Amino acid sequence: MSKTKLEYIWLDGYKPTQSLRSKTKIVRNFDGTLDGCPGWSFDGSSTEQADGHSSDCLLQPVALFPDPARKNAFLVMCEVLSPDGTPHSSNGRATIEDDDNDFWFGFEQEYFLWNPETDKPLGFPASGYPGPQGPYYCSVGAKNAFGREIVEEHLDLCLDAGINVEGINSEVATGQWEFQIFAKGAKAAGDQVWVARYLLERTAEKYGIAINWHCKPLGATDWNGSGMHANFSNELLRTAGSKDVYDTACQAFAPYVKEHIAVYGADNHLRLTGKHETQSIDRFSYGVSDRGASIRIPIATVENNWKGWLEDRRPNSAADPYKVAARIIKTVKTVPEYATVNGH
Question: Fewer CB within 10 A of the terminal residue: the chain, N end or C end?
Fold first, then answer.
């Protein structure tokens, strides 16, 4: 009789920013499939998802990955359901309307490696600041790159788990890094980002380092904040062949600035200031190759005869990729050309 560790991972109900939770279930003779993962439950009164008089919340497995850091183990991403089997109010994944996986997403996840002892980014002196921004972006060498051993170990774990990481790099600020994940299907993209976040948290634990997902952890300083730029496409954008279609698609976002900002991560006003390659939080703009715009049209899309994707630069590093994707999809579906391409 074989025994397998299944690590059930879910999002709690904390506001305004949800956190990861997980626990291990030992199963016998596991067949290695998602269907073979039994449903489970947890105490929602300890995660801001229920009260003590009716505390059970259900875990519905939705994605399965091998866990390369543990023996005989898998990672099980789960949705949270209420006791009656309906999606819990904290369940952003259930709000995604992409059943045919028409939407593809690439998320650029930035974060800080954080020293709990100094309460500053890795590489910062105990008092004061390191040298100004400039040499840290895509840096090489111990003078400018900090925590590479954590980042490299995390990358290997993600690849071994089957997560589609497309790249990593050190970022503009000291101790700041980024990984990029792409998936065909909004739910799959969200699943992979959350499991990659989980693996990063767990890997950094071994080194006594925390992960700071906050979009502006250094406050009102001249240090860059952290984003989670959302690159997205669907059949309309991938086959448009027309600047007019892209203009119409970008303009469709203008009436919904507040709705997007509402799910693009807490404290985004600290990051979206119009500085440090951002647009102001209360304005909307778009442009070709414009990193100061709300939405950037990549030059590759233009050079490919207006067939490609768009990048929404407003989501921040702590945003829920499920909710970001759900809102982007909802807006794109208001584009008149969308109905034509998708037969609606």
Answer: N
**Residues 12-44: pLDDT tens digits?**
999 999 999 999 999 999 999 999 999 999 999
Paired tokens of 27: 């199963």
> Both ends of the chain: CA-CA distance in Å?
52
Asked: is 3-91 a CATH 3.90.79.10 domain? The reply is no
pTM of structure: 0.96
Q: How far apart are alpha carbons 265 and 212 in whole angstroms?
A: 14
Domain spans of the chain?
3-91, 104-342
Would you put residue 226 in left (φ > 0), alpha (ψ -120 to 50) or beta? Answer: beta
Alpha helices by DSSP H, listed for the chain, are 148-160, 186-206, 235-239, 243-251, 257-261, 299-303, 321-332, 336-342
Distance separating alpha carbons of residues 314 and 335, to the nearest angstrom: 20
Best CATH choice for the domain 104-342 from the list 3.30.590.10, 3.10.580.10, 2.60.40.10, 3.30.450.20: 3.30.590.10
Q: Are strands 20-28 and 3-11 parallel, antiparallel or unpaired?
A: antiparallel
Q: Please report the DSSP string for 252-275 in residue order.
A: TTGGGHHHHHTTS-TTGGGT-SS-
User: Under the phi-then-psi rule, with left for phi > 0, alpha for psi from -120 to 50, and beta for the rest, what region is 55?
Assistant: alpha
pLDDT at 338: 75
Q: What does DSSP assign to residue 54?
A: B
Say whether pLDDT at 344 is over 60.
no
